[in-house]
Predict the 3D structure of the following.
Amino acid sequence: MTHAQPAAFGTAHSIAAAVRSGERTAASVVDEHLARIDAAEGEVNAYNHVMAAEARAAAADLDVRIAAGEDVGPLAGVPVTLKDNMCTRGVPTTCSSKILEGWHPPYSATVVDRLAAAGAIAVGKANLDEFAMGSSTENSAFGPTRNPHNLGTVPGGSSGGSAAAVAAGFSPLSLGSDTGGSIRQPASFCGLVGVKPTYGAVSRYGLIAFGSSLDQIGPFATDVADAALSYEVIAGHDERDSTSVAQPALAVSSKLDAGVEGLRVGIISEMVGGSIEGLAPDVLARTTAAADALVAAGATVDECSIPTSIHGIAAYYMVAPAEASSNLARFDGVRYGLREDGNNTAAMNTASRTAGFGDEVKRRIMLGTYALSAGYRDAYYGKAQQVRAKMAEEFASVYERFDVLLTPTAPSTAFAFGAKADPMAMYLNDVYTIPSNLVGHPAISVPFGAGDDGMPIGVQVLAPLMGEVVMFQVAAELERAAGGAA
Amino acid sequence: MTESADDQVLSRDDVAHVARLAMLELTDQEIDLFTVQLGDVLETANAMNALDLGDIEPFHHPLGLTNVTRPDEVRPSLDREEVLSQAPAVEDDRFRVPPALGEE
Amino acid sequence: MSDASTGVSASGMAPVVMIDRGPDIHEPSIPDDWELVCGLEVHVELSTATKLFCGCANAFGAEPNTNVCPTCLGLPGSLPVINEKAVTDAMRLGRALNCTVQPAVMARKNYFYPDMPKDFQTSQYDKPTNENGWLDLPDGTRINVERAHIEEDTGKSTHVGGDGRISSAEYSLIDYNRAGVPLLEIVSRPDIRTAEEAKAYVSELRGIVLALGVSDARMEEGSMRVDANISVRPRGTDELRLRCEVKNINSISSLGRAIQHEANRHIDLYLTGDRPIQETRHWDEEAGRTRSGRSKEDAEDYRYFPEPDLVPLEPSAEELQAIDESMPQLPAAIRSELMTAAEIGVEDAGLLVDRGDAVFALEAIGAGADGSRVAVHLINNLADGVGALTPASFAELVAMETGGDLSSTQTKEVLAEMAGTGGSAKDIAAAKGFEAMDTGELDGLIDGLIADHADEWSRFCGDDEGDAKKMAGFFTGQIMKATRGQADGKVVAQLLNARKG
């Protein structure tokens, strides 16, 4: 049976409009969603922590302010789910790791503050692959999340809890983080819109880092308009993040109805040809159909080449673990989180880390430590950073001829639990999503029909740096085309 | 490149050394497993060697940001009780840890 | 030297006092057939208002763990934003040390250390802000500076139990107030050949740092810390042998002792057919020796890589020009100005610069005071500081002294009061009843003394120079006794000499 009930109580747009006009109260909206969570969470396991009391209190406060005539923001009363790697003051934040179990951060992430300031109400902290390392949410210390469309399959990952929460109707919006595809791949698996913004468009302050030069926060939504609205709320300069782009959020809602007449769409030949193994025929077929739909809407489509893209996984699995090995050093049992006994500081550090981290996290810490170690840094980490630079040059030259690029989001539909036991097989799942992270470009996954197994398939639109407006514009056209086809 | 006798990309000793650097304690089985699994990834990475990258500058911020600084102005610090409440062990308002050089 | 009035020789080049820069080095000096090869790593804590990467106060001595925030505690999810003043201060020091000030990239130095909240230190690696400069010692010796880079400080551990030493502690307590405080690390080339040069280098560097105002550079408080890389080689060779890094040196005088000790330790090892191992050692001030720093030596592998949470620093030409234009006068320039204005030698000038009295001295001289008297008083009579004295009031006093209105003894007394409570030289002298004696009164006194001590007088007029000098002292002493110290020694000498002839 399916537990999929996206936008069970309306989209974010419709909820916000109703709450702002007084037609619905934030309290009632929150209660509806909490009841839905109560009913289905036992089977989906989207959350590490449901913030029922906090959500009810925030809703009551919002209703008082609305009654007093205050403008409480564009997401008034909209329940949102937060990936549990975003700090929430006083609310447990675990990264789905035993090493952070019970940690109550003394501060909140910038995106959390911005959502609250826009009137959104956080309803829970969503499950993820431990420290966002994985593509299935099987690597959680607190058990896997199940795909609401088919409980026997994974929701994707690492933001699997955030995707499942929206697909199950627990909240119409959620936030994930995307280091190598961790928003877009689960969006594809769960039939949602998922956005990876330009690196620096959304503040990372308060996002527990995995690969700092790759991580970006972005929304999951049931439609492109909601995704655009939430993007506009969370994006924009933050002085607490040195890598934050010094300009306000792009007005990505502005061209959703503009169509694609005259736009030039590129198909990366390396990503649809034979050079990447494992691309399922049904996924390829839907990608081709998406290209056809854009042509039908007046765009031109042509092939292009990003030769280094075939080395994307190699470069990614050097850089991301290298940065992670350093980012995760701080989990040492001294200041917060798990501590295991040891006779001296180093023994305590080692015992705590050994007990606190799961296998995949250890594997990546090991890999990254090796990639940076004396004698190997230039060959691995250094080489990978050069590949990124080279890839950025290739993309820049392709974008001289194209406005956006189109690829599959993931090689297949959602797979069964345990299907990718071999780490390398799991890593290959990120092949289409990784290049955008490596070069910092924005990308969006949009549902475009279903596979042979009836499970959702997403296609991915890539755009140049700060090219979110045209990216959302094309995504909206694909959404219209998919709706028409369904 | 460490080429051990059986032509592995990395050896068990490499894995054990890296575990010490990363402050992780691995069982013998984990060392065996990681030797194979990390070796697989490194083999994929070695394919990058085929690329002619010349002296291309390594990647930095995609938008080329530079000189992001903040003014030298004091901002509020955290409440000490809130900070220490999260610590595994505290004494005299400080974080307590085992001795630096205890018995091994 | 006791009598200040004779301290400055006519040439002005002999030192006023033996400069006390700490206890003598008791370590035997290095044998002549060996040579020291030493490079210094000096850490200077910047006296910015806030830390390097967050807005927490950079303050010494606050209650434990009160100046902490997510960033300097390394809490998950926190991010750094670099302090613009720290960057500017770094570049100012770089220019003062004749470095190339260049585009820089912050980097992570990875190692586990409980005092370091992120278990990596954010520093600079292959692209430091400042590279390839030099520092000239007062005697002209040039010490090359490899780099001067920006990095963050660690927190502080207190070791509890046992005898309080790290090796026997039962546990440790950590305060992170200092974590993230901005540091500049200045790394010299191994150009230093004697312990004295090492001390002079640190002293000169400290003077530059103080002149720039970027740090209070107090070794005893740890805001300036010196680590020495030490090796030795047979004199005449240019080989570089295994070196040891000696840490925990708490004063400039300890630096000299630590270097001598460590160099001798190496020489002893070589002479017995052994050799040192490359390691970190700690200076034990009480025992006067270095000790091995770690029980087990795991080769360090810091796995440096560019800090992805910070963007490159690229100083503009305008910024560098502004730094150059606002560069204060540095110790070398002040010394040379002082040497001319006060007619003193490089050591005395250096002492005044080290004490922070140089600008004061030049202002007093500028206000008309006799340079050598200014130097004498500052060095001998104001060793504890100028107190309430201003350059103008000081100049007034010196003018009264050189004009013969006050004897040197009286001047000293007035000076002490002025330094303590302020006030004008004239008022204080008048209140004390110090008025210049007229020479008629002194003439009478001398007549009487000659009559009463004819023998002594003829010895004073005799050919035996030594004896004459002794008798000069006798007569001067008698006159001082009779006038209760009010007579001006110089005037008395003139009168005595005049009678002689």
User: Anything to note?
Assistant: The longest strand of chain C covers residues 34-45. The radius of gyration of chain C is 29 Å. Chain C touches chain B through 51 residues (CB under 8 Å).
